[in-house]
Amino acid sequence: MMYIRFPLSLRNVEDLLHERGIDITHETVRFWWNRFGPLFARSIRKRRVENANYSSWAWHLDEVFVKINGELHYLWRAVDHEGEVLEAYVTKTRNRKAALRFLRKAMKRYGRPDVVVTDRLGSYKAAMREIGNASRQTTDRWLNNRAENSHQPLRRREKIMNRFRSMRSLQKFAAVQSSIHNHFNLERHFNPREDFKENRSAALAEWRPLAA
Known about the structure:
This protein is of the alpha/beta class and about 210 residues long. The chain has helices at about 1-5, 10-20, 25-50, 95-110, 120-130, 145-150, 150-160, 165-185, 195-210, and strands at about 60-70, 70-80, 85-90, 115, 135-140.
């Protein structure tokens, strides 16, 4: 949780655990997140999908430019109106075919959204037309700030990790980070302090048996 949720390096987590009397190496932290991260993410995602009917209301789609070994790749991301990360998908291209695969992957899990907010990239328009969802797309200025802001945790992680080494590692980390981010996404700027503290305690209480 510490490594995925916060912008910490493997060695930062090792030092923090050492202060708590837990003597491990940073490679152990790497093994833990690689081995157990996807399992925890799958459990969180399963629970949220079962109770996430609201996620079909409005989607915000955007793509992040990521360099892997000097080669440009694209991380497509779908976020709902409350900042929940719905889907993350890595591709080498930014064309209609890639946008179509991304949309179909997200819709298979969450269904067809009522409104889809995108930038003016033509690939979105072509893909939406093909799946029969073109009438629900909107590209008005400033409406996609929700997606733009959701990129920030990943960008911070990318800097700490000195960039990603492969498409597979980026896809895996993005999927795990998205699920854990959703679990602890408490919208603290919208809630009174007392409500935030209660929600934070509930999120931690739900996490502990999951990680146990």
